[in-house]
Amino acid sequence: xxxxxxxxxxxxxxxxxxxxxxxxxxxxxxxxxxxxxxxxxxxxxxxxxxxxxxxxxxxxxxxxxxxxxxxxxxxxxxxxxxxxxxxxxxxxxxxxxxxxxxxxxxxxxxxxxxxxxxxxxxxxxxxxxxxxxxxxxxxxxxxxxxxxxxxxxxxxxxxxxxxxxxxxxxxxxxxxxxxxxxxxxxxxx
Amino acid sequence: xxxxxxxxxxxxxxxxxxxxxxxxxxxxxxxxxxxxxxxxxxxxxxxxxxxxxxxxxxxxxxxxxxxxxxxxxxxxxxxxxxxxxxxxxxxxxxxxxxxxxxxxxxxxxxxxxxxxxxxxxxxxxxxxxxxxxxxxxxxxxxxxxxxxxxxxxxxxxxxxxxxxxxxxxxxxxxxxxxxxxxxxxxxxxxxxxxxxxxxxxxxxxxxxxxxxxxxxxxxxxx
Lengths: 189, 222
What we know:
Chain A is about 75% helix and about 0% strand. Chain A is mostly helical.
């Protein structure tokens, strides 16, 4: 199932690159919810998250050749782009402090029920389960620094100060977390 | 990816990128590992239905945006032919070339300049194109500007300078003169990539009027 869906992504991307708007709409249907969820998690603000997702899809349309299947799946390419843009957006808006405070206690959006509102492709939920399970297998200290870096956009120095641990320890934990996570996900794939 | 590691402290990010990371195996390995995992980690966030207005907004946006692949159909041969034939100077209004604060080729290239361009190059969605001579054109996903990064770039001949042009169709717009600083080039070209088919670097006599491009400075593959 997952293999078939990945192949579908490639075909949709090929069609999008040829200017097929139906393919664009289908990729939107597949990834908009995940992209929006990620952008909201990173930015902590609905308007910023919407702009991030909008800009990411527009970039995909304008420059579809930015995706190179030899470097990974479309899913990882697109979500990586969304994440990068989310962090950039936060920097531009200089709202990191407010976002950080908010990120720890993100409330569901008004009138939104994430579980009910999102209909997504099965392989995304399968992969999400794999990633989440892999994260739970990390030692708590490693998972903590990883999440602070990825979702909170904190520097290793900031993490060091906040956790009151040496900078070298932050680096070591981050590297160990990344290695283990990569290994676990490769096994899962 | 990089933003995840460096957060909002741009100065610290710049310093790490240019002074520390290149010589730190641990940090380089961490960056490589992050690159491969950034997309997958995004799945940890709960999916949320975007506002219903987003898709219509996008569809409206598609109307005015062609694919880059259709806009950038240049071949190197065509660039040369265009430059030698009917090149028209459009003027530099609205364009900006920044290196070392934009003060010209003799201005010092700061670590921050270099870090900014390297950060753009590290973006997984960035498009790169070889401009020849050890320089690369970088187009980040947001397409708000173009960047040129070069390392070990030889200087122009005595009495000459490198000149950067934005080429579209048979027209070329002069952007600015530059020269490598200790072999390094880091340029930000504040131009709408939609209006540019190709960046072109020529070698011109210092002080000459930038009326039209001369011969390309290097052979480019991109």
